[in-house]
């Protein structure tokens, strides 16, 4: 809907009304169309101001409508009518002007923004392009390079950046609406032709072709296989080379090819999943809307290795005072220097002052007496962590929340080392913690709803996408990663090379294949975990076969590389070869290929050609199968939680929705059939045996993903 009022005598005020973000639903488009018509035909109206109710201009087209047949007036004719009108229209932008919301503002003749407003064309993140003239008007307003950047990344800009770029005419810290009304009066009667963006020529770089080719190359590299960024570049090329009306035609055609695409469906599913995970629930019935978070005025981080430093930076950047603790002065000094430089660098990027005064470095645990929450980030060692938790429990206030940044250890055991186990939760950050968006909030059987609510709320404050998950080895993300990684090394035993496996995964859309990731993070990380699990090292029973552990197939290849000192990039060699320790460019390594051949012959293994399809099916379906087990076990509340974790923490390509969405897109019967096939071929790999939830879903007729929770509920109710 839109409300029409007359103010200040001659100004028509049109207010978009569609909470919470004034999305351009059919009713809103109808309201705007009617109100603009009324304003243009009323002789007493000299100018129009367009604004959004409740301090939000407009969040764009109504994404929920995309899945339904379109009704109501089209966005493009509505926007065109505003620009073509003979009375000046001023957009008063508060809150957000995103997507169709910004396109609406671009059709207005003037734009005034509150200094806290954010603007952008994020359609690419929904698998679309800004197809209400955004790809054609923005380049005509701010030039091709700047427009291309905003359109292909979908990034939001602040009002101040928008002013610098020339997107808005004024930025104010006053009442935006009042200023817009004054402004509208002041421009009434002035010629409108120069203000109509459709009539302007875009400013282009002199070497337009090579500029656009470079841009195309970059978007293809950034999101392999994603079609929307490519369409964005094509649409901007049309703006740069064609008259406006032809550019609009091209924009429409490109949008039509994306609108019903599987990629757009996947990315819009990601958008809504991200919001769904905020409405978390625990098996106990505790939920986001019945559990109250406690305020965190001061926090602490213990252990200032890579993770601890990133967590401390995140807290400071969110404006939370932090006590950062190391055990010894020398380590503390090194960490202090590192944290300070990150804070300075990040602040410089944002054009702000670093909030160095918010962080206090200490080696004294007594400094934790006043904090509301501690995040322990010491070495991943249960005995050490238990010791830290015992000390925290005696030093901190009795109601302080104690969180562990572990990637797989049992949160419950740590809770048991404290006096108040209900205040203990896991906060699994991802490296680098001040950059990565994902946070797994891990609740143990004794974690209180308040502790979970507080950690979830804190995650939000830190700008993270927080997902509440149950306690098990590896939680959700790393637990699913294990069968995926195992398949990848089994494939090497069977004849594949790291290059083949990585290529298949990268063509699927992962930024890096499993072996490149392993080289980057260090092979010793997994080695340590496997030692802890008794799969390698002194814990292995004497006489146990090298390729069998705990009755199942085991591949010792990663352990053998570690024993040879091939730990990945940091040692200059791992699955690939690097020009020096710390080198980044992976080269195929003939030594590794020989080593694989020798290994196979030593173990009597026959190499066979491994197809790209087999790589994808074995790696991805075993990961997905574990996802179904996680749902069955109640470790994740729904498939959206798993998919959000994978998209934000594990490089799963958003245009494929997430592993569980992908299973639905491929077809659950197909996934089941393939798993059955591979588990028959490899009976010694239990992870390939289809989970009972997958079987149930198929038996239930493979319902759409939003109905899976109902099937999971019936499984739980029968347990
Ligand atoms: C706006 C935000 C930044 C606010 O963030 P905040 O954290 O405050 O709040 P939430 O994110 O939690 O959101 C609250 C609530 O609101 C819902 N919501 C938000 N935005 C929208 C929206 N745009 N539509 C619907 N609902 C929205 C959100 O889901 C929450 O509700 P929930 O119940 O889920 O908790 C933030 O929300 C945000 O970033 N929003 C998205 C902004 C965005 O991406 N905007 C762009 C939208 S797409 C668009 O605008 C497209 C236009 O360019 C062009 C449209 C042209 C259409 C032409 C169609 C031609 C098709 C031709 C094809 C023919 C094919 C054929 O049939 O042959």
From TrEMBL:
Subunit arrangement? Monomer.
Keyword Cell membrane set for record:
no
Quote the cellular component terms of the Gene Ontology held in the record: peroxisome
PROSITE patterns the record matches: 3HCDH, ENOYL_COA_HYDRATASE
GO: which molecular function terms?
Answer: (3S)-3-hydroxyacyl-CoA dehydrogenase (NAD+) activity; delta(3)-delta(2)-enoyl-CoA isomerase activity; enoyl-CoA hydratase activity; NAD+ binding
Family of this protein = In the C-terminal section; belongs to the 3-hydroxyacyl-CoA dehydrogenase family. Belongs to the enoyl-CoA hydratase/isomerase family.
The 3-hydroxyacyl-CoA dehydrogenase NAD binding domain, residue ranges = 298-471
Q: What is this protein called?
A: Peroxisomal bifunctional enzyme
Pathway per its UniProt entry is: Lipid metabolism; fatty acid beta-oxidation
Q: Name one GO biological process term.
A: fatty acid beta-oxidation
């Amino acid at each position: 809907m839109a409300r029409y009022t007359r103010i200040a005598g001659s100004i028509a005020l049109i207010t978009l009304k569609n909470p919470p973000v004034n999305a351009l639903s059919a009713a809103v488009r109808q309201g705007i169309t009617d109100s603009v018509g009324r304003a243009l035909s009323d002789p007493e109206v000299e100018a129009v101001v367009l604004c959004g109710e409740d301090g939000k201009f407009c969040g764009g087209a109504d994404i929920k409508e995309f899945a339904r047949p379109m009704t109501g007036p089209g966005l493009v004719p509505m926007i065109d009518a505003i620009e073509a009108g003979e009375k000046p229209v001023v957009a008063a932008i508060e809150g957000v002007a995103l997507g169709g919301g910004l396109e609406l503002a671009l059709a207005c003749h003037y734009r005034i923004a509150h200094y806290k407003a954010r603007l952008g064309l994020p359609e690419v993140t929904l698998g679309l392009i800004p197809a209400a003239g955004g790809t054609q008007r923005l380049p005509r307003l701010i030039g091709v390079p700047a427009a291309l950047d905003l359109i292909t990344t979908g990034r939001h800009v602040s009002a101040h950046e928008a002013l610098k770029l020339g997107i808005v005419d004024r930025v104010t810290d006053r009442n935006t609406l009042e200023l817009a009304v004054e402004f509208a009066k002041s421009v009434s009667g002035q010629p409108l032709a120069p203000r109509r963006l459709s009539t302007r020529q875009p400013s282009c770089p002199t070497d337009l072709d090579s500029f656009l080719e470079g841009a195309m190359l970059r978007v293809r590299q950034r999101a392999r296989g994603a079609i929307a960024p490519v369409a964005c570049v094509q649409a901007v090329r049309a703006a740069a080379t064609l008259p406006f009306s032809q550019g609009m035609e091209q924009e429409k055609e490109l949008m039509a090819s994306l609108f019903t695409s599987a990629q757009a469906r996947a990315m819009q599913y990601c958008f809504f999943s991200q919001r769904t995970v905020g409405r978390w629930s625990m098996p106990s019935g505790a939920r986001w809307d019945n559990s109250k978070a406690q305020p965190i005025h001061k926090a602490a981080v213990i252990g200032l290795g890579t993770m601890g430093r990133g967590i401390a930076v995140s807290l400071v950047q969110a404006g939370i005072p932090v006590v950062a603790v190391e055990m010894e002065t020398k380590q503390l000094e090194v960490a202090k220097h590192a944290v300070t430089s990150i804070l300075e660098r990040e602040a410089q990027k944002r054009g702000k002052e670093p909030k160095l005064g918010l962080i206090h470095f200490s080696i004294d645990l007594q400094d934790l007496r006043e904090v509301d929450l501690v995040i322990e980030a010491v070495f991943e060692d249960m005995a050490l962590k238990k010791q830290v938790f015992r000390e925290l429990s005696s030093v901190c206030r009795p109601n302080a929340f104690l969180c562990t940044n572990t990637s797989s250890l049992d949160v419950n055991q740590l809770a048991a080392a404290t006096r108040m186990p209900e205040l203990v939760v896991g906060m699994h950050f991802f490296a680098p913690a001040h950059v990565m968006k994902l946070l797994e909030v891990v609740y143990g059987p004794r974690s209180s709803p308040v502790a979970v609510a507080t950690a979830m709320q804190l995650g939000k404050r830190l700008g993270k996408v927080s997902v509440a998950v149950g306690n098990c080895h590896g939680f959700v993300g790393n637990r699913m990663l294990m069968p995926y990684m195992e398949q990848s090394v089994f494939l090497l035993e069977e004849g594949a090379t790291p290059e083949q496996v990585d290529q298949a995964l990268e063509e699927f859309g992962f930024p890096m294949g499993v072996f490149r990731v392993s080289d980057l993070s260090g092979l010793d990380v997994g080695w340590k975990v496997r030692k802890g699990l008794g799969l390698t090292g002194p814990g292995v029973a004497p006489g146990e076969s090298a390729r069998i552990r705990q009755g199942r197939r085991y591949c010792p290849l990663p352990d053998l590389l570690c024993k040879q000192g091939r730990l990945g990039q940091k040692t200059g060699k791992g699955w690939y070869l690097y020009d020096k320790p710390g080198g980044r460019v992976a080269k195929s390594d003939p030594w590794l290929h020989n080593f694989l051949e020798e290994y196979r012959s030593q173990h009597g293994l026959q190499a066979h050609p491994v197809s790209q399809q087999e790589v994808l099916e074995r790696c991805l379906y075993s990961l997905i199968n574990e996802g179904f087990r996680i749902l069955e076990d109640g470790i994740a509340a729904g498939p959206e939680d798993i998919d959000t974790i994978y998209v934000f923490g594990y490089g799963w390509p958003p245009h494929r929705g997430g592993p569980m969405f992908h299973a639905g897109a491929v077809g659950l019967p197909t996934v089941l059939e393939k798993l059955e096939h591979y588990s028959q071929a490899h009976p010694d790999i239990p992870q390939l045996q289809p989970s009972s939830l997958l079987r149930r879903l198929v038996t239930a007729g493979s319902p759409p993903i939003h109905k899976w929770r109902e099937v999971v509920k019936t499984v739980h109710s029968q347990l």
